[in-house]
What we know:
Helix content is 36%, strand content 15%. It has 442 residues and is of the alpha/beta class. Residues 116-118, 121, 144-146, 206, 210-211, 239, 241-242, 266, 276 line the site of pyridoxal-5'-phosphate.
Amino acid sequence: MKRTRSKQLMNRARKVIPGGVNSPVRAFGSVGGTAPFLVRGKGARIWDADDNEYVDYVGSWGPLILGHAHPAVLRAVRAAAASGTSFGAPTEREIKLAELVCSALPSVEKVRFVSSGTEAAMSAIRLVRGATGRSRILKFDGGYHGHADSLLVGAGSGVATLGIPGSPGVPPELAALTLQTPFNDVDAVADAFSRWPDQIAGVLVEPVAGNMGCVPPVPGFLEGLRTLCDRHGALLIFDEVMTGFRVAWGGAQVRYGIRPDLTILGKVVGGGLPAAAYGGRADLMGQIAPDGPIYQAGTLSGNPLAMAAGLETLRRLREPGAYVALEARSRTLAEGLAERAQAAGVALSTSAAGGMFGFFFHPGPVRSFADARKADPEQFRVFFHAMLDAGIYLPPSAYEACFVSLAHRPIDVAETLAAAERAFRKLRTARPRAPATGSRPR
Ligand SMILES: *Cc1c(COP(=O)(O)O)cnc(C)c1O
């Protein structure tokens, strides 16, 4: 597959944009090769600058649950744009989207819209710190909540550890306020609460981890977090930026029946335009300015175009059968990949939840970031490029979840599995290397 034009564009981009990209994972750092520059998308398909066609499993990293350029979403955005692209003043679409979000998520009584998941997560931890008067936050190894200082931390060593800066520029003093424990390990969280009594403001979790591959919660994990937070006076925050309106109507809290105190949304809620949100109990949200003293603001927050795209997207998702269809599609893909890998003698573990799925080149089970890191990076790299050259666009990192949309048709899935069968056979000749240890770029 030729990518001459993409290569030229990347060389040009690198001169004026760091790494040629506006978000690191797009540079293909962990898989190598030339990232296709994309020019258009329609339904489940995308086309690059060399006019190569791909079946897309990235979906702009999650928002495009209806597929690319959905006619109804485009209509809604065009209509909104025709009346003005931004006011920085209240508009009715914000109420409609807020009402829809509050009706879908049982734990959300009030919601504030912002422009990115990073901003929503940053605002949510300010709120839990302000509301509890405590400073420490607990998150999980391999959990990603955007790039705010407090949340961009790496794990130290030991069971429950103080965070270390995940990037130069994150003050160690701030990183140390973020505790990090293994995902799916309730005992480690209990241990952290006893080591830092009355100091933990909130526990922040991706209820289905989606930034270390796709790792569902083991039974009892989310329940355990709810119990521990209640016992120790901490707030439970579900980061549903990825899982919200993707693993169920209403997100993981509906799927698993757990009520967090606060929820962070993004991606699908903006329907492919920049919108995100945080919301929860009315008494907590009442502490946000202007009702309360905790400050948070945004020039483009609740942007009319983004509200229009989000509203139209959610309305389509509310139609009966949407999540049954999404789940069936991701299960077919996950199970199809597992069968074909097994037939080719390749160790692969797969998972699926609603409209997301993932796979690891590792026999499994994969329940934590430590497990995920045992997967073979070289096999992933070879598989990724074999798929890309066969016209299947997967996330260019072994630690990302794959996404299906309502636009993926049976023929897309069949093409994908046929390409995978050939790619797995190719792998038998690839030489395994030592597992990766570093954190992944995003
Ligand atoms: C994508 C993501 C974020 C960050 O959202 P941005 O809009 O990229 O800032 C936060 N949390 C989770 C779980 C995500 O998947």
